[in-house]
Model the fold of this input.
Amino acid sequence: MNGLLLKDFLVLTKQMKLFLILIPVMAITGGAPMASIAILIGAVLPMTAMAYDEQSKWDDLAVMMPYSRKNIILSKYVLGYLCMTGTAVLFVAVNMILSVSQHKTLGESLYVVMFAIVSGLLLIAINMPITFKFGTQKGRIVFIVFFGISAAVGSVMMDLIPSIPEKMISLLPAISVLSVLVLNVFSILVSFQIKHR
Done:
C-alpha cells in the first residue's frame, strides 16, 4: 500500500503543485474557517487522484501488478485520511503556539475544525463508493452538493453552539467522530463489494 500512496502523492504533487501549497497556507494563516475548507479539500484529493488514474488507464495496468483490489481501494481512503489529518494537525499546532504566545484560547476554533473533520470523513464515506461505482464525474457532483450542505449546516451550528448545554457539547464531538468512523468502515466494505463485481 505504501507504493500506491507514494504513486498518488507523486501524481498529485506533479499535477497540482500550486494547489498543494495553498492547502497548508490556508490551514496556517486563514483561521478556522479557511482551515476547515482546506480539510474538506484534503478529503476530496482521493477523488482527484482517481480522476488521474482514469485518464491514464491505471486500473488496466494495476490488474497486471502485485496489488490486490482491496489495497488499491484502501489506499484511496488512507490518502484522504492523511491529507485531512495533516491539515488539521498543522492548524492545531500553529494555533497552539499562537495561543501560548498571545495568551488566547483555541475555544470555538477547535469545534469548527472538528466539524470540518467530521464533515470530511462523512464526505469520504459517501463519495468513495459512488466514485468507485460511477466514476469521478458523478463523484464531483456529490462533492459540490455536499460542500454546499456542509457550509449551510456549519453556519447554523456556529449560531447554535452558545445555546447547547455544556454536557451535550462535551459529548457531541465523541458521538460525531464515532458515528463517522463506523460509517467509514461500512463505506470501505461497500467499496470492496463494488470493485469485486
Observations:
- Residues 69-102 form the longest helix (34 residues).
- The chain has eight helices and no strands.
